[in-house]
Design brief:
The protein is mainly β and 120 residues long. It has no helices and 11 strands. It has strands spanning 2-7, 10-12, 18-26, 28-39, 46-52, 57-59, 67-72, 77-82, 91-101, 106-110, 114-118. A hairpin with a 4-residue loop joins strand 7 and strand 8. It is elongated and about 50 Å long. The N and C termini lie far apart (40 Å).
């Protein structure tokens, strides 16, 4: 079994910053990709950013220049630094990991989500 623990969400003023983190633990052989998705009220879940175990990153155009994804392979943890936050960034942010389990099975796991609210 694999567990994902997310933290760092909250209420922030427009223009402010937040840092999300997601730590994976359990029967993990290796992690291929870690990332963040978000779902705003009434909208579909969308990609925010991903990072591979090799450090290659990908992020949505809507957050480029404002959000930075990083990872710590030793801690199986991914971070999302969010700067210059806008009200339209308000959403539930979900951690996503693509792993190879201890039984050498490819699996995808989702966190429970952490709410980010950008409002004055």
């Amino acid at each position: 079994q694999v567990q994902l623990v997310e933290s760092g969400g909250g209420l922030v003023l427009p223009g402010g910053s937040l840092r999300l983190s997601c730590a994976a633990s359990g029967r993990i052989s290796s992690i291929n990709v870690m990332g963040w998705y978000r779902q705003a009220p009434g909208k579909q879940r969308e990609l925010v950013a991903t990072i591979t175990s090799g450090g290659s990153t990908n992020c949505a155009d809507s957050v480029k220049g404002r959000f930075t994804i990083s990872g710590d392979n030793a801690k199986n943890t991914v971070y999302l630094q969010m700067n210059s936050l806008k009200p339209e960034d308000t959403a539930v942010y979900y951690c996503n990991v693509q792993i190879i389990t201890a039984d050498y099975v490819n699996m995808i796991y989702w966190g429970k989500g952490t709410l980010v609210t950008v409002s004055s």
